[in-house]
Specification:
This is TonB-dependent receptor. It is a multi-pass membrane protein. It is found in: Cell outer membrane. This protein has one domain: Maltoporin, Chain A, CATH 2.40.170. Helices cover 5% and strands 58% of the residues. The chain is built from four helices and 43 strands. The strands form nine sheets. It has a 22-stranded antiparallel β-barrel. A five-stranded mixed sheet has the order 3-8-9-6-7. The chain is globular.
Length: 688
């Protein structure tokens, strides 16, 4: 197995070296472009930010054929996406949430709109300018639910340039037969009034019967998906100091849910074949609006961000995920979030002191329906969370090379939860709570040379407390408290070889306190569980990322992340009265390592070649470490040609059709979700 990957890498490298020499330009023009980011809520070069972060540009997304966030994070070390269907929440540095959590451990922001619940954490990437992935707690500037990191998706905004594209894609999954998949879309943006008013429109649709078949009834579209998404961006610059934008997007998904199958047990079926005799529907509707107004003055900049997010998903699935007669499960998650942020900051004038202060307020209203009658579990939960915060951060530069940063955030939450439980002794109950958090940050960065920076950072983050929508039984056990992280990070960022080579690395240690975990009450039945803040844990590891452009047409890139995330202290009761000591067990959904390695060649004559090797180490899907997913790796290849206005690209994902699973659970046997088989296709793009 390893030999063919090595052979492929050698062959691809040899081809790229040969062709790049044949078409090489003057080497003096070869540079890796610096990327401007807003990770610290002000514009900076990514190499100047003392944070372990990865930036993927819109060009990178298109060249790698990345379609959504779960695909993008495969190119980012120490970042992982849980594969539990509707709950594809992000995991950074091994810190994940319990599988029934609503609040995410990683903050996701799209055009500064906070995505409030983790079921929203796999958006399509449509006409994106860049994606910033920040590793480590980001509580000071981003607040709640960024205890392990934050992800910023910034879409492309219209300006004076008239530009656009239309693309169409046809491909198929290879499961012994070809299952078609389709994707089409486009975008256009430009001025309505030159230098003053601009508009942008983007849209996309994708559909397929997918690669699962239900052998119970012969349904060949058991996991089909049908997604439609669109966005409109308006931008107004009435004066040189003002930049006002209004962005609206909407998404609709009509999908099926039968991705799971039994690997063993009475209901077992083969790879890519489920065996369901129950419900199979999964529909999602969402829409978002944001109004941003920025004033750029001589002495300060002022930014106002007002946003609303509305997300609803409904799921009806077979309660036993097999051919048994357990009936259906019925879930609904409906979240409406209102947010307002005001930021006052120093202008980018090159002075020694840079500062930022801000106010934030939000109101999140969530309805969670969890109905599994076979287990006497029928609950409806209404959750209201109000948040207010004040924050600030300042950086002072000494001797033109020593950068000292201090920041803090005070955040106050009011939480109220009401639950109706059809099978509880008291069917209706509620719980109200308040919570206050103090989130400091300290950072020291030193420019060893003009191209090498070393830094050390101390920061804190927290995962909001919440309500046990899935297993609550009374007012006392329906609420659980916040979870906290404290991070220590040291790293460096460097540019070498006349800006042809970048090497960035970081080491980290994270303490996790009050970890939210699922426990069985002493003497309780196996179906009765609660959420407790009972565990302590820690995460240690490193990241290394390298990019090199030895010639103008060729680029090499790669990264590796290593994480050891384990429980340090947790002893909990089990059904039957016994206790289990989790000390030394790995946290769920925390791969020990992740890596990516790639090379890309783009010739002056229009030829385009790219190869990527993407790998994930083994991990456990449960806290007891009994449900293990073996590590897996896939290879993606692309070859294409660009004319003046048209691109044609042939692509193949999982070229060697590696067989692997991405999740495993003990239920009535070993219940697994298969990884994607090989897919191959052609994408045609017309640009104007």
């Amino acid at each position: 197995m390893l030999a063919r990957y090595v052979t492929l890498a050698v062959a691809l490298t040899t081809l790229l070296l040969f062709t790049s020499h044949a078409f090489a330009e003057d080497d003096q023009e070869v540079k890796l472009k610096g990327v401007t980011v807003t990770a610290q809520k002000r514009e900076e070069n990514v190499q100047d930010v003392p944070v372990s972060m990865n930036v993927v540009t819109g060009i990178d997304i298109e060249e790698a054929r990345i379609t959504d966030l779960s695909e993008l994070i495969q190119y980012t070390p120490n970042v992982f996406s849980t594969q539990s269907l509707d709950n594809r929440s992000m995991v950074i540095r091994g810190i994940s949430t319990m599988n029934t959590a609503l609040s995410p451990a990683v903050g996701l922001f799209v055009d500064d709109i906070p995505y409030a619940i983790n079921r929203m954490q796999n958006p399509a990437l449509l006409d994106v300018e860049r994606v910033e992935v920040l590793r480590g707690p980001q509580g000071t500037l981003y607040g709640k639910n960024t205890e392990s990191g934050a992800i910023n998706i910034i879409t492309r905004q219209p300006d004076n340039e008239l530009r656009g594209k239309i693309f169409g894609e046809y491909g198929f999954y290879d499961i012994g037969k070809a299952v078609p998949l389709y994707r089409a879309g486009g975008n256009v943006s430009g001025p309505i009034l030159e230098d003053e008013l601009f508009v942008g429109v983007a849209f996309q649709g994708k559909t397929s019967d997918s690669y699962m078949e239900n052998i119970y009834d012969g349904d060949k579209s058991a996991a089909e998906y049908d997604q439609k998404i669109g966005r409109v961006s308006l931008r107004w610059t009435p004066a040189q100091v003002w930049d006002i934008s209004f962005i609206v997007d909407a998404e609709k998904n009509n999908n099926k849910y039968a991705w799971l199958r039994y690997e063993s047990g009475a209901g077992a079926s083969d790879k890519h074949k489920s065996n369901w005799n129950g419900g199979n529907d999964w529909d999602t509707d969402s829409n978002n609006q944001v109004l941003k107004a920025k004033y750029s003055g001589k002495h300060f900049d002022l930014l106002s961000i007002t946003s609303r997010s509305d997300y609803r998903t409904e799921i009806l699935n077979d309660a036993d995920f097999g051919p048994f007669n357990f009936g259906n499960q019925d879930f609904t998650f409906d979240c409406v979030s209102y947010n307002q942020e005001l930021r006052l900051s120093s202008p980018n004038d090159g002075k020694a002191l840079e500062w930022l202060v801000g106010l934030f307020g939000s109101k999140d209203k969530t309805f969670a329906k969890s109905h599994t009658p076979v287990y006497f579990a029928v609950r409806d939960t209404d959750i209201d969370i109000g948040t207010v915060a004040v924050f600030g951060q300042a950086t002072y530069t000494l001797f033109d090379s020593l950068h000292l940063t201090v920041g803090t955030r005070y955040e106050h939450q009011n939480l109220e939860g009401k639950q109706t439980n059809q099978f509880a002794a008291t069917p209706k109950y509620s719980h109200s709570e308040t919570n206050d958090e103090f989130l400091p940050k300290l950072s020291i960065a030193y420019d060893l040379t003009d191209d090498i920076m070393a830094y050390g950072t101390y920061s804190k983050g927290f995962l909001s407390g919440g309500y046990n929508f899935h297993m609550g039984n009374n007012a006392d056990d329906m609420y659980f408290k916040p979870e906290h992280t404290t991070s220590y990070e040291a790293g460096f960022k460097s540019v070498f070889w006349d800006s042809r080579l970048t090497v960035n690395a970081a080491l980290f240690h994270i303490d996790i306190k009050d970890k939210q975990v699922i426990e069985w009450p002493v003497g309780g039945a196996p179906t009765l569980r609660r959420v407790s803040n009972a565990a302590q844990a820690s995460s240690n590891g490193l990241e290394l990322e390298v990019s090199a452009r030895p010639w103008n047409e060729i680029e090499f890139f790669g990264g590796v992340g290593y994480t050891e995330a384990k429980f340090d202290n947790w002893v909990a009761p089990r059904p039957g009265g016994n206790s289990f000591d989790y000390k030394g067990k790995y946290l769920p959904n925390a791969p020990k390592y992740t890596y990516n390695l790639g090379a890309q060649y783009r010739a002056m004559n229009g030829l385009f070649l790219r190869g990527d090797l993407l790998g994930t180490g083994s991990y456990y899907c449960d806290s007891e470490n009994t449900q293990k997913v073996d590590g897996y790796k896939t290879v993606n290849l692309k070859v294409g040609y660009s004319w003046e206005d048209v691109d044609a690209v042939l692509w193949a994902n999982n070229v060697f059709n590696e067989s692997y699973v991405v999740s495993r659970m003990a239920y009535m046997g070993s219940l697994v979700q298969d990884g994607e088989p090989r897919s191959t296709g052609l994408t045609l793009t017309y640009r104007f």
